[in-house]
Amino acid sequence: MRKYLFGTGIISAVRSGMALLRGARGDVPFTWRQALAWLSWGITLALSIGTIVDTYRASKGKLVAGDSPVSSSEQHALLKKHLDR
Fold first, then answer.
1. Which branch of life, at top level (predicted)?
2. How far apart are alpha carbons 3 and 10 in whole angstroms?
3. What residue numbers bound the domain in which 18 lies?
4. Cα 63 vs. chain centroid, distance in angstroms?
């Protein structure tokens, strides 16, 4: 589980979220730029969590979506598994 939680995607999402929180503490009113920054942070966090889920599923031998970054390595592993039988 450690290898998933301490991946670079999660660490960078947490650090950027902390930076956004620090920036929101000031007396500056909420602007559309801040809204876009928060939206970008949410997308980054969702993508990094999705990659963790796909990596976990692929390591257990389950199918992952074709647009996943780990789908090609997962397909090679499944093909090798079926050829070894």
1. Bacteria
2. 11
3. 2-84
4. 18
HEC-encoded secondary structure of 33-44: HHHHHHHHHHHH
- pLDDT at res. 1: 57
pLDDT in tens, 22-49: 888 878 888 999 999 999 999 999 988 8
How far apart (Å, rounded) are the C-alpha atoms in residues 1 and 37? Answer: 29
Coil, strand or helix: which one is 61? Answer: coil
Compute the C-alpha angle 27/31/37, nearest 5°: 105
Task: Please give the structure tokens belonging to residue 1.
Answer: 């589980």
Residue 61 CA to residue 72 CA, distance in Å, equals 13
